[in-house]
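Revision sheet: structure tokens.
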Amino acid sequence: MMSVNKDNEQEMFPIVDEQGNIIGAATRGECHNGSRLLHPVVHLHVFNPQGQLYLQRRPAWKDIQPGKWDTAVGGHMDLGENVEQALRREAKEELGITDFIPQEVTHYVFDSKRERELVFTYKTVYDGEIRPSEELDGGRYWSIEEIKASLGQGVFTPNFEQEVVKSILP
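Predicted:
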């Protein structure tokens, strides 16, 4: 796999309504340029059997939230994919994980000045090897206490903080 150092602005995303019905399509560039076209994404929170949460570090070249710690797996759904297909593709691409059982947690609309995402959130307990791809700037397991102590400090993406407080942390 060749090293990626920039997001593909021409990548096509489905445009959806708040129920997840596809109503159109647009490029990554169009979705992230302030148009606020609602597009679907998947998140997978990966816990180890000890209850620690794996987080990825976003590389400096990402167009949104570079250098911040974020959900273990997060990615856009491609045109023609369903949620589970996107979840499994992203988990394999980002962490090399193929054998996991996703549990649905929630779905919600994430709103920022720059974009709107319909986020489908899942979690899993995984006891295998994690191999972060070149898409990421590495990653590691965090204790829940460590995460709680770092909230609001600019360490995490706003999306992760909002999601983890509402639906992941005990």
